Amino acid sequence: MRDGLHEGDRVALLVPGSLTYLAAVGSLLARGVVPIPLDPRLTAYERERILGTLSPGLVVEDEDDLAALAGELDLPRARPMHVTSGTTGTPKGVWSGVLGAEDAGALVAEERELWGFRADDVNLVLSPLYHSAPLRFASGTALAGGRVVIPGPFDAATVTAAIEAERPTSMFCVPAHLQRLFAHWDEHGRPDLSSFRLVAHAGAPCPPAIKRRLIEAFPAGSTWEFYGATEGQFTACRSEEWLERPGTVGRARPGRRLSVDPDGTIWCAVPPYARFEYFGDPVKTAAAWRTDADGRSSFTVRDVGRLDDDGYLYLDGRRHDLIISGGVNVYPLEVENALRDHPGVVDVAVYAMPDERWGQRVCAAVVGTATAAELDALARERLAPPKRPKEYHHLDELPRTLTGKVRRDQLGQT
Fold first, then answer.
1. Domain spanning 10-253: which superfamily?
2. Which of 21, 35, 141, 323 could be joined to 123 by an S-S link, Cβ 3.0–4.6 Å?
3. pLDDT score, position 168
C-alpha cells in the first residue's frame, strides 16, 4: 500500500478528534487497517505500556500524518481497536480482526437499523472521538452520508451554540454532559431542541432526575439509553420503556441474546461479526467467552445484573471496583500501580466518591510519607487527567478483609 500499511495492520492515533480524524478512521477501516484510538493526553509512561503490547505499524502524533491517512469512505472491514484496562490494570486491545464482506455489511446494517443513520443526519459530537461510542455514532452518520459537527472539548455554552447554529439531529452523551447542559440552560435558557431525532446516553448510571429532565426536554421518542462496554454492545432502551420499568437498561439488541448466571454475571450471545479477543492474551480471551447449549458464543465483561420476565436487564453493579468519572472508565489498580512507584508510598488504595459534576471522582488513600503534592506531580507524569486522584487522604493503615483484600467501601468513611 502507498503508506506501507497492509490489511490487518494497526495504526495508533494519538491526536485530537476532528473531521480529518474521522475521515482517517473511515479510510483505514475501508482498507482493512485497524486504527487504535488513544487519548492524546496519555503520558509517555502510559503510551509505552499500551503500545508495547499492540505493536502498531504506525503511530500518528501530528495533523499532517493524520491528513495523509484520510481518504474515501467505504464499507468498514474491521472495528477500531479500543483499549480497556480491565480489572488487572494492564491495558488490553479489543481486537476483532478483519471481517469478510458479508460480516462487514452485517455490522454496518445492524448499527444503521438500530439507530437510523441517514444522509440528512447531523451528528453533534460531545465526547472525545478516541472513545468508542462517540466514534461509532459519528462514523455511522458519515458512512450514511450525513454531516458531523465537532465543537471541541466539552463546554456547555459551546454545545448550546452548536445546537442553535447547526440544528443537529443526533448526539451521544454521558450523564455528566446532561447535568452540565441542564445547569447551563437553567441559567441562560434552553435552546430549541426540536431538530433532534436521536439522543443516546450511556457510559455511567443516569440519575433518575436527570433522566426525567432528558425525556421532558427533548422530542418525544428521541431519547435512548444503551448498555455496552469496549468489548461489545448488550442492550438498547427507549426512554419510554424506562418510564414503564424505571432502572432498566433495556432488552438485548436485535440479533443478540442475554443471560444471567446465578451469581448475576451477565452474558451476551452475539453474531459472528461481533466476536473479539484481547490482543495477545488468549487466557483473558478464553475467560470472556463460552459456548451456549445451542452453539452460540456469548461473552461477558463481569458486570452483574438481573433479567425480568420480559427480558429487560437491570444492572446491579459495574465491573468490580470500576470508577466511572464523566463517562470515562478508571480502574483503581492502574492508578495504584502508578502511585506505588513513589518511594514514600507504603500502601495505597484508589476509590470513588460521589461527585455532582462528574458522577464519581477518583480519590486515593495513602499509607506513607509521600505528600499530596508529590503524589499529584507523579500522577501528572504517569496518568491522563481523568485517572488522576482529585483527593489524597493519609491513613495509618488501609482497611482490609481477613483475606487481605482492601475494603474500598470503607475508604470514603475514613
1. ANL, N-terminal domain (3.40.50.12780)
2. 141
3. 98
